[in-house]
Amino acid sequence: MSDTLPAATAKAVSFRGGGFAPRPMRWVGVFVFITLIALAEWGTQTGWISSLTLPKPSDVLATFVELYESGLLFKHLAPSLSRLAVGATMGALTGVAVGIMIGLFSHVRAGLVPLVAAIFPIPKIALLPLFVIWFGIGEGSKYALIAFGTFTPTVVATYGAVDNVDRSLIRMGQSFGLSWTSIVRKIVLPGAMPGILSGLRISLAIAIILLVAAEMLGAQYGIGAYILEAGSLYDLERLFAGVVILSLLGVLVSAVIGFLERYLLGWRT
Fold it and tell me: Percent of the chain having pLDDT more than 90?
């Protein structure tokens, strides 16, 4: 009998350095949407779901096609996109700038954090009559409401992201003699960017909600005005067509944020 043990057979070990990186599975989301729509169509066709509570998805699609062919889709969509772009851009840019200043400067933090904490819980929709008094019933009040509603969550998310940057990296940069500006530009801002973009997802969703609320008051055209008119007539097909437009708008905003994450956060892969 040989005293030597047989040599262990070599076994390939799969790479495990990916961490918790998400795998792209785009078709899963499409499958979920198609399944839900198919179930709704089946339920309404068979009478299991009352037509008074949920319209047929096929009828909603026909209403959407009619809205497109009549040209009303762009009459309502164009002003909504304009209001959302102007208001959300103003609120997001101001919120990011103020949030970074709060995160970097102690005096700014001491002065503005209590103010932000005071105005953050206020329901922004409740301020719409006040904005109408200040800016009129035209576009100014709508821009102001969307900008203010986007501003406060962006500020909170931004200075929270700056606070969560790894302090050991900052100390390392100081030990290598980097200037304050270089530390902010090369360490603090890249480290805070994931939190800032996550905050923008929430802020832009709030902006869409406030857009609808603003357009329900004194707007002739817009998705909110279209939904309000359909609801007052109890036209469920038109009402759900407007809801679908808002859902697609939310998906578009999420896709834009996702593109920014891939572009700005490529260093994480």
Answer: 28
Neighbours of 153 (CB within 10 A): 24
The model's pLDDT over 20-39, given as tens digits with 9 standing for 90+, comes to: 666 667 777 788 888 988 99
Contacts of 224 (CB under 8 A, 6+ apart): 80, 211, 212, 213, 214, 215, 216
CATH class of 68-268: mainly alpha
The string of pLDDT tens digits covering residues 91-100 is: 999 999 999 9
Separation CA 202–CA 229 (nearest Å): 28
DSSP assignment string, 187-239: IIHHHHHHHHHHHHHHHHHHHHHHHHHHHTTT-SSSHHHHHHHHHHTT-HHHH
CA 180 remoteness from chain centre: 32
Cβ contacts of 242 within 8 Å, gap of 6 or more: 223, 226, 227, 230
Residue in this structure with the two tokens 């002003």, named with its chain if needed: 79
Domain spans of the chain?
Answer: 68-268
CB 222 within 8 A of CB 208: no
**How many C-beta neighbours within 10 Å does residue 198 have?**
15
- Residue 80 CB partners (closer than 8 Å, separation 6+): 211, 215, 222, 223, 224, 249
What pTM, to 2 d.p., does this model score? 0.81
